[in-house]
Design goal:
single chain; alpha/beta; Rossmann fold; 6-stranded parallel β-sheet; binds beta-D-fucofuranose
């Protein structure tokens, strides 16, 4: 009898243990670390909101760090995620170079890595599970093509056209590629020249300051090509303060298609924005789930995007989500 009781006791204990573990496993949240660049632009704020919302909807335990546009802060966050043993790491690299060491550490720890939005200069594609974002070269080309067509429609395609360029963060994927893409188109149009080009670090404040210095030089400026809308919006302010009419005296092209750009276009102060969607949250969440389910994802997934000229702004503005 005693023996039967002992066997039963062992059986019950094991059962309790197994059920307990199962309940714990069901309760255990997926832990995701995300090292964001900062909050430098409206695009970035929308991107952060999209990621936070999608992770909350999925019930993830999201460890989110704002790197305040400093690479060292992002590297520290990535190392902290390794120490915490998160299930998946996501990040958007502020610049392309300088990630080799920390990414090796992530790989050695066996934590899957999702890169979103920006790119690194590391060769090969073994070091990350998947990358999602925009084709920045194509965005630059779209901006260039729109300009060529616009000048043609105004009968100015044979004129000497001076372009000033506000570049994004030095060494970042979108700054390098949006410049490259735009110049790809200019190559076939020698009368279109970039006469001044400087970084505005993707911020509205620097966009304004740098535009002020472009204007101070006193040379003729026909076009402003800004690598994002925030810098274009800052520049519009500078152009107005200089007594000129943005969108008329100077043709203004931005990238992102944020609400502020549509408002400026409706007001006739900006001419075109090339879309770059920050709404990557749902795609990010799907990628996390797929990776943890052991699925293999495509190494690159580009977002599908549009170009919005001033003429369509007032019809489209109400439907914009960021
Ligand atoms: O265009 C800019 C932001 O990396 C695509 O970063 C992103 C860029 C975006 O600050 O507004």
């Amino acid at each position: 009898m005693k023996r039967k009781c002992a066997v039963l006791l062992v059986f019950v204990s094991v059962l309790v243990l197994v059920l307990g573990c199962a309940a714990f496993a069901a309760d255990k949240k997926i832990v995701v670390g995300f090292a964001q660049i900062g909050a430098e632009s409206d695009w970035r704020v929308a991107n952060t909101n999209s990621i936070k919302q999608a992770c909350a909807d999925a019930g993830f335990d999201l460890r989110f760090v704002d790197g305040q546009q400093k690479q060292e802060n992002q590297i520290k966050a990535l190392r902290d995620f390794i120490t915490q043993g998160v299930d998946v790491i996501g990040f958007s690299p502020v610049v392309e170079s300088g990630w080799d060491e920390v990414i090796e550490e992530i790989n050695d720890a066996g934590i899957p890595l999702i890169i979103s939005d920006r790119t690194t200069d590391i060769e090969g594609d073994d070091y990350y599970a998947t990358w999602m974002g925009s084709n920045f070269i194509e965005e630059g080309e779209k901006a260039g093509k729109w300009l060529v067509e616009h000048l043609k429609s105004k009968g100015r395609d044979k004129d000497e056209i001076n372009i000033v360029e506000l570049q994004g963060t030095v060494g970042s994927g979108p700054a390098i590629d949006r410049k490259k893409g735009f110049e790809n188109i200019l190559k076939d149009h020698p009368n279109l020249k970039i006469t001044q080009s400087q970084t505005g670090d993707f911020t509205r404040d620097l966009g304004k300051t740098v535009m002020e210095s472009f204007l101070k030089k006193g040379d003729k400026i026909d076009v402003l090509y800004a690598h994002n809308d925030d810098m274009a919006l800052g520049a519009i302010q500078a152009i107005k303060e200089a007594g000129l009419k943005p969108g008329q005296d100077i043709i203004i092209i931005g990238v992102d298609a944020v609400k502020g750009a549509f408002e400026a276009m409706v007001a006739g102060e900006m001419n075109c924005t090339v879309e770059c969607s920050p709404l990557l949250g749902p795609q990010f969440v799907e990628a996390v789930k797929a990776i943890l389910d052991g699925k293999t994802l495509p190494k690159i997934t580009y977002t599908i995007e549009d170009v919005f000229p001033q003429e369509v702004a007032k019809d489209v503005i109400a439907s914009r989500q960021y």
